[in-house]
Specification:
Layout lengths: L2 H6 L1 H7 L1 H11 L5 E6 L4 E6 L9 H16 L5 E6 L11 H4 L4 H19 L4 E6 L3 E2 L1 H8 L2 E5 L3 E3 L11 H11 L1 H9 L4 E2 H6 L5 E3 L4 H13 L3 H34 L2 H19 L1
Parallel strand pairs: 2-3, 3-4, 4-6, 5-7, 6-9
Antiparallel strand pairs: 1-2, 7-8
The structure holds ligand LGGBLMCM.
The site of ligand LGGBLMCM has 27 residues, from helix 5, helix 12 and helix 13.
Length: 288
């Protein structure tokens, strides 16, 4: 059934109401990889990442995420965002490794610029943002989670900046995001060792704020959002921006240098070789 047909279903219309359907329709036509449900009554948008099999972030998916963020930021009725996944085992597998393996320089450059934009847009969002982490969340997945104001994670999954395990280096703004959440010492341990932490380990160091069962993760996120939206927007937003702007300005000032560094680093023979091995192992593991 097409989305158009779905929205015509009387049951759905009765359940959600006309206003809600309109908001849903305007948001969902945007991309089938990023599903948005903006509730006009609460002003809360649930944004589901939906790029099978594992929500890995390629150029087009990152652009869709960015467009969605722009759209929500331009919608005055929207006050809060819950970021989650349509896959209940993987929140986001991080950057699409295929974007970095044997790449074309132009696309690699565009890919990195788009990731920088997503980071600035989500980290500096005017919205209250909650990550409902309903699956594994390595590297770029962990980055998205640490961009949010609050993290609720389902038990028995893993999260972390595991870049060093792939023979690559987490960029300074990935590290800054993590440090803002867990502090210098825990970031140092986590990033140098490329630790993938279980939900419980992540909770112990404050990387996630709540550990929950899969059935309740979205409801818990909605409940938490209510308390964030009780605060006047201007007070919450200015406080947030006061805390986040230094890191955003740091990347803004070094954007081009960061892109150049990324492209030079990724295209090194030794890094390509390490990525090749990593992909081979991933594929072997997936076949088992
Ligand atoms: C200066 C340089 C800075 C660069 C910064 C880099 C940041 C990054 O984000 S690098 C990416 C890091 N991500 C990972 O290391 C995650 C790797 N994936 C996994 O560990 C697992 O896939 C999983 C835990 C996320 C999910 O496990 P599972 O549900 O068992 O799924 P499979 O492992 O069977 O994977 C299915 C399918 O997807 C492919 N795949 C997985 N991750 C990625 C990825 N990040 N990019 C591209 N493709 C990925 C995997 O190879 C399988 O493919 P097929 O074999 O074709 O089915």
């Amino acid at each position: 059934m097409s989305l158009k047909q779905l929205f015509r279903q009387p049951m759905l219309r009765a359940m959600l109401g006309r206003q809600h359907i309109q908001a849903l329709r305007s948001m969902t036509t945007q991309s089938d990889k990023v599903l948005v449900d903006l509730d006009p009554k609460t002003g809360v948008a649930v944004v589901q990442m939906n790029r099978p099999p594992v929500n890995s972030l390629n150029l087009e998916f990152l652009s869709d995420i960015n467009n969605t963020l722009d759209k929500l930021h331009n919608d005055k009725s929207c006050r809060g965002l819950i970021l989650t996944s349509s896959n209940n085992k993987v929140f986001c597998a991080g950057l699409d490794i295929m974007e970095m393996y044997q790449p074309q320089t132009d696309r690699l450059t565009e890919f990195w610029k788009t990731l920088q934009n997503v980071w600035m847009n989500l980290y500096g969002s005017r919205l209250a943002t909650i990550a409902a982490i309903n699956g594994h969340s390595p590297a770029g997945g962990c980055l998205l989670a640490t961009c949010c104001d609050y993290r609720i994670m389902v038990q028995n999954f893993t999260i972390g900046l595991n870049e060093t395990q792939l023979g690559i280096i987490p960029p300074f703004w990935f590290v800054d995001s993590m440090e803002g959440v867990v502090g210098y010492r825990q970031t140092e341990l986590a990033c140098q060792k490329g630790l993938m932490m279980t939900t419980d380990q992540a909770s112990k160091i404050g990387l996630v704020d709540e550990v929950v069962t899969p059935e309740v993760v979205l409801q818990k996120a909605q409940n938490e959002m209510v308390s964030w939206l009780k605060i006047p927007d201007y007070a919450r937003q200015l406080t947030k921006s006061q805390m986040k702007m230094p890191n955003i300005n740091k990347l803004r000032a070094r954007r081009d240098e960061d892109v150049q560094h990324f492209v030079n680093f990724i295209t090194k023979d030794s890094v390509q070789q390490a990525l090749g091995f990593y992909i081979e192992n991933l594929k072997k593991k997936a076949k088992k």
